[in-house]
Amino acid sequence: MVVGRYAEILPWDFDEAPTEDFAEHALPLFVPYAQAAGVALPEAADLSAPPGQQRAFFRLHHLLFRMEDAALALPWRGKAQGDQLPLCAVIGLTDPAQPIADAVSASGAGAIDLDVIPLLAAPLWELAPKERDEIAGRLPFVPPG
Fold first, then answer.
1. Whole-structure pTM over 0.85, yes or no?
2. Nearest by Cα to 122 from 18, 4, 5
């Protein structure tokens, strides 16, 4: 069984609007260029329809759950478990014509220290209205710190 990518990290100039050139249910996650330096990424982004994956909404929902879980300071959780994602801030993009930096500011996440916390910007405009409404209550996600 072929399984497509869960999500695709896309280094991006946040002064620009995000690309709209991705298939339905692909999940591009835009990150500032500076934060992608040194990250091992594939040669080319795969923004095609991801076979074998759930809808983008469910994958984004799961990613937010994992971020919320990673933010919990649970005494029994140690680094040795290897199942904890690094803390990231996540904002939703609702207007594909809006520069990402403007969306970050509008979300209230503009004070994030990008030298400390990675920032993921997820396009929401392709989600169904019901899905956008459900996920909007969880965004922006800004880890405590």
1. yes
2. 18
